[in-house]
Amino acid sequence: MFKTSTRLVAGALFAAVATASFAQAPAADDAAAKASLKHGPFRIIAPFPPGGPVDVLARLLGTGLQNEYGQSAVVDNRPGANGNIGIDAVKRAAGDGHTLLVVPAGNMTINPTLMANLPYNVDKDFTAVAMMAKAPNVVAVFPSVPAKNIQELIALTKSKPGTMAYGSPGVGSGLHLAGELFKDATGADLLHVPYKGTTQALNDALGGQIQVIFGALPTLMPQIKSGKLRALALTGSERSPIMPEIPTLAEAGVKGVNVVSWYGLYVPSSTPANVSGQLARDVTKVLSNPATLETLKAQGLELSPLRLDAFRKFQADETATWEKVIKSHNITAG
Question: Please, what's the largest Cα pairwise distance for the chain?
């Protein structure tokens, strides 16, 4: 079993660092960095197909940088190899602040433990600039499942051992690890069914082939609102402003499971510190725009305060957490 003392899960780390996070990027712009960033177009690599949160955030950032510096900003979608193709392209780019990477958490905090022979080293090849946004994850069930809340679901799984299953986007995904933490914390008897992406898992959940799904709230929100799925609890530490009626697992009596999805901005490690710092300030300015905040809300995303050193510490702590989970459950990439 995964011991309680090692349940340093992702969302709990926000409380320790959030209050000082914006201070990690000095309020004043760096004149030399801004002058450097004004020379040349920006290329923002999103290592996944268009349409998802990574793509949305990359395009919001691109528009903001274009307005700020008067230079073109192109979003370059580079899907393939679980994001590794796009990530490797940024690793090899010049460290001048004009090639940026927008990427989800798993590529930087899970894959280094889960996958052998990654073409990149997170700490050596990149500088973590900012956590751009975060999104709560949700535990949801097919409507015919006779559980109206988390405690009823736990009791139901125990009364029918070996017969109920939860789906995730794949082995070693953040949502798979969240499911295993949930089982450890509650003793719920749930089989794990990995899929090749969220869409397949969602389709089977909507069809009743699996009874439970762990998913990102922005992805499952339309089905929850339409009544095609029933949301039982969020896996983060706070309720979501977009669906405040859904309780957290902690509120439902489940302690030690506190996991959010997040999306970060990175640059090649050769990027000068003053340029990275200026980009951190630019991210804050771009994403704090009222219209942008509304766009994030519509996507089920929330602005994160983590910048530079605070973000790097959070990333390192989460990497250590997931390493323990992966090794204790003998999880290997499929």
Answer: 65
- CA pseudo-torsion sign 29, 35, 36, 42: positive
| Residue 80 contacts residue 94 (beta carbons within 8 Å) | no
Q: Are strands 165-168 and 212-216 parallel, antiparallel or unpaired?
A: parallel
How far apart (Å, rounded) are the C-alpha atoms in residues 110 and 8? 14
Q: Which residues pair with 197 in a beta bridge?
A: none
Q: How confident is the model at residue 123 (pLDDT cuts 50, 70, 90)?
A: very high
Q: How many CB atoms lie within 10 A of CB 279?
A: 26
The CA–CA distances, whole Å, from 308 to 36, 183, 197, 278 equal 19, 34, 30, 10
How far apart CA 81 and CA 47 sit, in angstroms, is 9
Instruction: Provide the token pair at 167.
Output: 């789906």
pLDDT at 22 exceeding the cut of 60: no
Burial class (CB in 10 A: 0-12, 13-18, 19+), 231: buried
Best CA proximity match to 173, nearest among 213, 145, 140: 213
C-alpha pair distances (Å), 19 with each of 40, 72, 86, 95, 226: 35, 34, 33, 30, 37
The strand pairing partners of 111, in sequence order, are: none
- In contact, 272 and 33? CB cutoff 8 Å: yes
Residue 139's DSSP bridge partners are 214, 233
Global pTM reads 0.82
- Looking at residue 8, what is its pLDDT? 36
Instruction: Note the pLDDT tens digit of each residue in 59-116.
Output: 999 999 999 999 999 999 999 888 999 999 999 999 999 999 999 999 999 999 999 8
What is the three-class DSSP state of 238? coil
The answer to whether the CB of 325 falls within 8 A of the CB of 183 is no
Q: How far are the Cα atoms of 141, 145, 209, 247, 268 from residue 156, in angstroms, in the given order? A: 12, 9, 17, 19, 49
The domains located in the chain, with CATH, are 4-134+262-328 (3.40.190.150), 136-234 (3.40.190.10)
User: Coil, helix or strand for 103?
Assistant: strand
